[in-house]
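user: can you give me the structure for this one chain? tokens are fine.
assistant: on it. calling the predictor now.
[tool input]
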Amino acid sequence: MLGVPERVKHLVTEMGHGLGKEKRDELVQWFKRWLCNDLSPLTDDESHSLTLEDSFSTPTGQVSTAYADAVSVPEQNLKLHRQLLPRREAFLNRPLAEVQQSIRESLRLPSLDVPVRTQLYAQKEMRGYTQYHYEIIREGLLPIPCIVIVPDRRTDGRVEILLTDAGKEKFLAQADHIQRCVDSGTVWVAADLRGFGETEDPAAYNDAKYWNREYRLSMTALHTGKPLIGQRVADLITLLDALATWPDTASETYSLRADGRYGPVVLHAAVLDKRLEEVTAMRTMRSYTECMTAPMQYDLFSNMIYGVLTRYDLPDLVQLAGGRFRYGD
């Protein structure tokens, strides 16, 4: 590395976040050797530790409470958000095609030109309906599991997509939900986009201190430049492409109901894909401004997009959707 591989050392140790003794000793030894040319043994009796109060940089231990004119990070971000309002207004005045392309760039949407493949892996004849279990595959994306419920007596040609934060299995496990589908005569499609239901990240990998049940997924996505919300929008468009290939679900337009973390996902998709004719979201974030006015919320990382407020906010997308999107609560 950098022409001096002998000066690189990799330490892996089980001690969580922070600079524990094993990490600290290795770090000091490395600096002693390569900065001071000192190979003598390290002696550390830990007799010079500081109290918590001694480590404070201000009398209160918090910069934001020690100075009358201190500005917190959320306050500074909210100020910048207000300053960017003219840019967002100008963005909305551009031609729709340009706005949509800019949104795709913000989401880092991949090319979706690759054909969709579907695999039927279960079919169940139930009382009053038939239940199909599919896996949707598009090269370069994660497989999407979905369940299609087709009532024996269809009263119309409508197809309704259901995306629930708790996962499709928990939603369909409630008998009254399926009975509503049978009574309505409408085909239901319940799916799990990546990170939900069947593909939900185990809780053991997401420490509660991060206030996000999918912290590992969302932060990895942001660090790789592919925000999780963008990946899910690609999944939803792939789902629409797959539905168009099945006789029971082929339609020019679809209605969609979603809740929780799915809200911003389906709102973006409604702006980008007119096949979503009627979209309803409940119990979900309605503006990125909430991240600054009420930052202590769960699961905010799930729908973060780099620099999004330099272009648009969620209420702007509601306007762009032109009446095809609404909040149900």
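assistant: here you go. Strands lie at 117-126, 129-137, 144-151, 159-163, 187-191, 254-259, 276-282, 325-327. The first strand starts at residue 117 and ends at 126.
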